[in-house]
Amino acid sequence: MDTATHQTQAGTPVPPPRPSAAGQKRAARGATHLGDRIFLGLSRGSGVLLLLIMAAIAVFLTYRASLAIGRDHGNFLTTFEWNTNQDPPVFGIAVLAYGTVVSSVIAMVLAVPVAVAIALFLTHYAPRRLSGPIAYVIDLLAAVPSIVYGLWGALILVPHMNGLFGWLDDHLGWTGIFSWEGGAPRSMLTVGILLAIMILPIVTNVSREVFRQVPRMHEEAALALGATRWEVIRMAVLPFGRSGVISASMLGLGRALGETMAVATVLSPTFDIKASLLDPGGGTFAQNIAGKFSEATEFGRDALIASGLVLFVITLLVNGAARMIIARRKEYSGAAA
Amino acid sequence: MSHAAIAGTRTERDRSSLHGARLPRWSPYAIALGAAALAVLVGTLAGLHSRIQWGLIAAALFVLGLYGASARVEGLRRAKDRLATSLVWAAFLLAVVPLVSLIWTTLTCGVKVLDVHFLTHSMGVVADTEPGGGIYHAIVGSLQQVGLATLIGAPIGVLTAIYLVEYGRGRLARAVTFFVDVMTGIPSIVAGLFILSLMLILKMQPFGFAGSLALAILMMPVVVRSTEEMLKLVPNELREASLALGVPKWRTILKVVLPTSIGGITTGVVLAVARIAGETAPVMLLVFGNPFINNNPFEGAQASLPLYIYQQYANSAGSGAAYDRAWAASLTLIAFVMLLNLGARGIARWKAPRTGR
């Protein structure tokens, strides 16, 4: 109706008589209100729906988890066992929590320095003609599905780890962490390395964005004082980007914590905690769910849901912390810029 | 301009000159060559078989050599700068190795069995350990599940973004923004477990649409984020001009704001589709996998491309034929995801909003 008015106005140079225009206006306003109300309702409804989904995830996972934990004859937090099919059932998340944390920490320790270096390479070192295409390739790599990383990890990375594991055992075996009994290298360290490769693109991308936002003036001021390129980075770029790098790493950590398929294909799981990172064994939350799901009874599935709930809470905390750091940084970089 | 002057100070090599002593431009290359030669020498003498070890020795020698030479001639500050430069380059090259290996292996192993027969047949009458069979059933399943997920996830995501940018004020909008951020980090397997808990309550068996629901949950926050960014790029003058002409707000959004940013929104949706197309974990819990062709996503277990890769790997008992199929399916999946990515970038470039800057 509204467009109709505009068309007639555009078509005829003479403005339409007043009374009818006022009438149309009133009619249009009624339609406007209705249309606006519907549209606002739809869009606000979608937002509310998102909140409801989040709430529903928490509620339903908690409900099913409580069914399982109530019948657990072990301690859910400290038992080193996962036997949901026996009577009475005994299961606990201690091994999974340990494995999830250890593999993710290895991934972080390996990936973050390399990712920061690549981000610096792209923003400050690479020839400009190179940095565009490389950034593009890294974007594409972030899109490679995790199952493909898993397949590559299991069939290519694992055989290549033998050399590294032998070397670590020879030279660092005395620490206990790097001793190796010679089993297939499907261990926490291999998982950590694969996870590091997988989170490299996202940590690099976020860090690169942060380094790009460093005020040009800060860098030029440092250069004008005679700083070398490394001194510019150390004095102007890294301090500015520190919180951004921290939140980038936490986003990467969130990915590593919840990664399922890459761990499920590479790790050979056992339900105990190995002192050595090189000996196969251990497990993570997501890997355990994927591995135990197919032979689980309904009760077993509830138990897996309970472990998933713990994973959910951990990732929520990590991601929430990362977002809060980013948000706070935004506030004062906005004031400074 | 003042080449002569600079050249003059350089030839004097005077402590008070503008430039301190510098290593000649060719010195890094010379040191690299020397390091490589030395590494080959050490490698052959020590009898190291792995070429990776040779490379590592060469890299270490290069970094140390350049640092030493620079520290001697140019002083410690420049030496540190050179050290940082070589370490940054080394980190970049180190990261490239696995990534190139991944792409290369997928390409070379994938093309072995990837042909028309592979794309048009299912695994219905082929045992997992035997050669033959294909991924038609998985492609059908993937397309249906991802398509349905997009039908649910994209509109909700876009509408939420519209709410946040065009209407959102106050506590509700802030809560939605925060939880969208948090939702981005939900592990895919948790989304799968959520739908699974519903299915356990309703006593349902696995079917394709259940997977779509989990994928939609994973897709929504990604779409919201990218759409929000795009809507924020639309200049306010456009909205004000439209409102000043008496156009109601909802028509302004539909006819002015959305058409201006449609390129970016489409790009975001396509990238989100590319992301969920590779998700395995929720599909494994909810759709279960099926060697036969099932064209009905609302009843019975279905296959899916990422799940097919996993099952070929896990159920094959080390059979080469199954690994070949897994690689070929990986190649298909990567090709699909990359095409979506390239397409998205194409759309973004073609329909980029003209902000007048």
From TrEMBL, chain A:
Quick one: which gene encodes this?
A: pstC_2
Q: What is its main location?
A: membrane
Gene3D superfamilies (UniProt xref) = MetI-like
Q: Which residues cross the membrane?
A: 47-69, 89-122, 134-158, 188-211, 303-322
State what this protein does. Answer: Part of the binding-protein-dependent transport system for phosphate; probably responsible for the translocation of the substrate across the membrane.
Where is the ABC transmembrane type-1 domain positioned along the sequence?
Answer: 97-322
InterPro entries noted in UniProt: MetI-like (IPR000515), MetI-like_sf (IPR035906), Phosphate_PstC (IPR011864), Phosphate_Transport_Permease (IPR051124)
Spell out the protein name for this chain.
Phosphate transport system permease protein
A Pfam short name:
BPD_transp_1
Q: According to Swiss-Prot or TrEMBL, what is its membrane topology?
A: Multi-pass membrane protein
